[in-house]
Fold this sequence. Notes:
Structural class: alpha+beta
Distance between the termini: 90 Å
Number of helices: 13
Number of strands: 16
Helix content: 40-55%
Mean pLDDT: 86
Oligomer: single chain
Low-confidence stretches: none
Order of helices and strands: HHEEHEEEEHEEHEEEHHHHEHHEEHEHE
Radius of gyration: 43 Å
Amino acid sequence: MQRQQLVQNTLESNSNYAQKLANSTDDFLHSALQQLKISAQLLEDMLGDEQRLHVEAERLRLQTDSFNSVLIIDQNGAVQATSPESLQLTGLSLDSPGIQEALERQAPVISAPYLSTVGNFIVFISHPIFDKSGKYRGLVGGSLYLKKESILNRLLGHHPYKDGSYLYVVSAEKQVIYHPDTSRVGDVVEDNDVVNSVVQGQAGSMVLVNSQGITMLAGYAPVPLSGWGIVAQRPESATLEPLEGLMRQVINKTLPVAVISLLLVWWGARKIAKPLRLLAENARMMHSSGTESEISHVRSWYFEAHELKKALLMGMGFLKRNIEKLDKDNRTDPLTGLLNRRGLDQELRVYGHMQRMFSVISVDIDFFKKVNDTYGHDTGDIVLQELAVQMRNSIRSGDVACRIGGEEFLILLPGTGVDAAIEIAERLRVQVETTEMPEVGHITISLGVAVSATDGSDSATVLKQADEKLYQAKRNGRNRVEA
């Protein structure tokens, strides 16, 4: 109940504060337009007199400090006078959004925020100039710099709270025109219920989470003349700090009893939890050797822990069998049972780590597409399986046979020089040529041989060289070994 009351009071206070600043801002804008109106009446007799126009621009800027800069512009958009003169805009024709809007409407205008010709982010307030016959002669306007010191910053920047509270102002287009963090000025605020409400002319209060994820208690009010919206907000945590302080006092008084009770509970829970903790720690290390033995030695002195221990041991056995199967499946070609590309890469990494030289035999079935086209893919698969059998029969213990895709095979011969590799390749070629395959009869193969460096560090190069020798064998008539 107290929490709700504190929140409600803060929401009401922020709403009133936002309304007060909205009224002050509206009064300032009315005053600024009145100043421009009086200046416009004086200027109807000065157009064409450069010196008098300059004096009037200076007077308008310095008399009340309402504007950061002042421009006097004719009906064609050409600047007749500026203050300060350092802007160096006199004689230029400007096409900035605020000036173009004022020229088109020929009426008092408070522009939307925009980037000026000289690179300042501004709001431009202007009043039309008419001569005595009622003919439109141009405008006089003042700029409010939104990212630099201005009367608008001073009006809104003196916030009385120092507890994380702040206020910001958005234009009718939801663009930030004032924020304590000037880097936020110019941002467009989306998906904010407070901003959506205030730019529609509504006033009130709301609880929301800001862009930094902080829960804020916001009050908001529109500025009628400009369509701007003023939002004052305070962190909910700052509002609830007194209540939380009271709660801390209560906790401090009850803490000793609570500590003793907790120590007793902790002692009992620790005794009960010890076997569970040991089981959990070992469960996280299931992949390590010796874990199964560690779990077996956990003293599970009550029924639930004993059952959990038994289930873990059963699960570990099942998991170990499945991991071994998955590892084998991951490295093996399912059709031929030979290593696949992943298994080949693992073997090459081992050779590189051991700095071991090796030879490679690249194998390809001659005219295998014709086999598939003539006898079908099922027969083609049988031929691939039979070739895998011949390869296993032709290589030595420690040699590695792989299928790396389609009818492409590879044999790794660790610690083997080129002569021995050619001998093994030739033996395989003859064996395949003389073996009758089911349905197909006899097939032939082409083979390419390459040898690595002495440290086995050039595996990619050796594979490429073996492929090149294989293609050379095909170009030279197939059913042959090239090295």
